[in-house]
Amino acid sequence: MSDMDLREDIKTMDQPETFAFSPENQAEVAAIVAKYPQGRQRSAVMPLLDMAQRQSSGWLPRAAMDHVAELLGMPPVRVYEVATFYTMYNLKPVGRLHVQICTNVPCWLRGAPEIVRAAQDVLGVAFGQTTEDGAATLTEVECLGACANAPVMQVNDDLYEDLTYDTAKAVLEALLKGETPPIAGSQAGRRGACPCHGATTLKDLAGDYVAQDSVKESAKPKAKAKTAKSAEAGKETT
Ligand code: FES
Questions:
Q1: Nearest ligand 1 atom to alpha carbon 151
Q2: Architecture of domain 97-186 in CATH?
Q3: 153: Cβ below 6 Å to ligand 1?
Q4: Ligand 1: does its nearest atom lie under 6 Å from the Cβ of 159?
Q5: What CATH number does domain 3-85 carry, 1.20.120.450, 1.10.645.10, 1.10.10.1590, 1.20.120.80?
Q6: pLDDT at residue 215, rounded to an integer
Q7: Spans of the chain below 50 pLDDT
Q8: How far, in Å, from the CA of 142 to the mean position of ligand 1?
Q9: Hey, where are the domains in the chain?
Q10: Looking at residue 207, what is its pLDDT?
Q11: Long-range contact list for 114-121, CB < 8 A, 24+ apart?
Q12: Is 104 a pocket residue for ligand 1 (Cβ < 6 Å)?
């Protein structure tokens, strides 16, 4: 969807007349604003928009942006500038599951088109669309900040990494059925962004780290052997 289409949608969609933070969130707002130095309270705009979005079932009505502007003493247009720049703010309602798929270069090189195909097969919608029952919205994004574990898909607050067509499909099917989905993170068994075939640097530190995971078993003895060798070399030089 182009920016122009989005602007048209926003103009014509039903928007709530008013917005106010819930009592619990009001206390949180005060705590967030207090973190910034005197005169710099406007810097709280992003966390406040995030909180407003969570309170509004995953999207930011215009009244919520206006309320944040008023709280922080900002011209509303400054808040709209922030909300329209970052893709994590949704300016129209989204489904219960917000499925965001990265199609930027690292993910594309590692198979993002297959992940898109899996999502479209499961959800039956294209980018920018929500399923008829409101269960899920599919969104294309430029980067989810987990490029080392490409290809990556985000569902609500969870990142699913190292995906294939089959694993992406399994995650989405489980979520749609309300079943417990596979644990978020790498779907290929590596922990964090550890190299697929075991640590290549900082092996002394990575020994335990690799051993906790299902990353190639063959990487473990090598890491340990290197550790012993390094200790021996250390003895010789002292
Ligand atoms: S390019 Fe896909 S997560 Fe960064």
A1: 2
A2: 3-Layer(aba) Sandwich (3.40)
A3: no
A4: no
A5: 1.10.10.1590
A6: 39
A7: 210-238
A8: 7
A9: 3-85, 97-186, 203-237
A10: 59
A11: 114/151, 114/164, 114/165, 114/168, 115/151, 115/153, 115/163, 115/165, 115/168, 116/140, 117/165, 118/163, 118/165, 118/166, 118/168, 118/169, 118/172, 119/153, 119/168, 119/172, 121/169
A12: yes
Q: Please give the pLDDT value at position 218.
A: 35
The confidence score (pLDDT) of residue 41 equals 94
Supply the pLDDT for residue 20. Answer: 96
Q: What does pTM read for this prediction?
A: 0.79
Asked whether 147 lines ligand 1 (CB < 6 A), one says yes
Separation between Cα atoms, residue 63 and residue 166, nearest integer Å: 41
Phi-psi region of 46 (alpha: psi -120 to 50; beta: other; left: phi over 0): alpha
Q: Is the CB of 103 under 6 A from ligand 1?
A: no
